[in-house]
Amino acid sequence: MKQLAIAFTGPSGSGKTTIIEKISKALSDRYKIAIIKHDPKNKAIFDTEGKDSDRFFKSGADVAVISDVKTTIFKHHTSTLEELAKNFGNFDLLIVEGLKTWELPRIGIFRSKIEEDYLPYLQAIAIDNSVPQEQLNGLNVKILDLNNTEQIIEYIWENATTLKGL
């Protein structure tokens, strides 16, 4: 299978993490799923203050922590989509949460209100019945049911793209 990629974007609290988790659970028994999550406020914590890898990272070095079941990489600079994807090795589907300026097919996740500043980046939106129908008038995107994981998965397989440079 080709290494495909798709992205999900939407406001905080809209359900991006929940739908990505549902998709991953539905597919991971048959496919290798990789996920990249944007941390715009630098809130994610991967180590404990004062532990070895924290001290190594604070020394200015890039650090990899390896165990029998996982690998964690700490870098002092950001990475491109392709650089990150290469870290995963072979995968069937890469899901990106956030990073709306990365050029990927993108599904917007909304509840209650569609935020128009996201629309230039989207090819589809996934909503529930909390979004008023009149907000859908004139939208030039595919409308998906946020509560129908299988419909969203079908859309992904039909619209995900291969990554350049892999």
Description:
There is one protein chain. This protein is α/β, with parallel strands linked by helices and 166 residues long. The protein has one domain (4-43, 77-162): 3-Layer(aba) Sandwich (Rossmann fold), CATH 3.40.50. It is built from 4 helices and 9 strands; from the N terminus they run βαβαββαββββαβ. Strands 1, 2, 5, 6, 7, 8 and 9 form a 7-stranded mixed sheet that branches. A two-stranded antiparallel ribbon has the order 3-4. Strand 3 (63-66) and strand 4 (71-74) form a beta hairpin. It is globular, with a radius of gyration of 18 Å. 20% of the residues are buried. The model has no long low-confidence stretch (mean pLDDT 89).
CATH superfamily: P-loop containing nucleotide triphosphate hydrolases
Q: Determine Rg (CA atoms, Å).
A: 18 Å
Outline the low-pLDDT stretches: none
Overall geometry comes to globular
The total strand number stands at 9
The helix content is: 10-25%
Distance between the termini: 13 Å
The helix tally amounts to: 4
Q: What number of structural domains do the residues give?
A: 1
**Mean of pLDDT:** 89
By CATH, the topology is Rossmann fold
CATH architecture identity: 3-Layer(aba) Sandwich
Name of the CATH first level: Alpha Beta
Largest sheet: 7 strands, mixed
Listing every helix as H and every strand as E from the N terminus to the C terminus, the arrangement reads EHEHEEHEEEEHE
Helix/strand class: alpha/beta
Question: How much of the residues is beta strand, in percent?
Answer: 15-25%
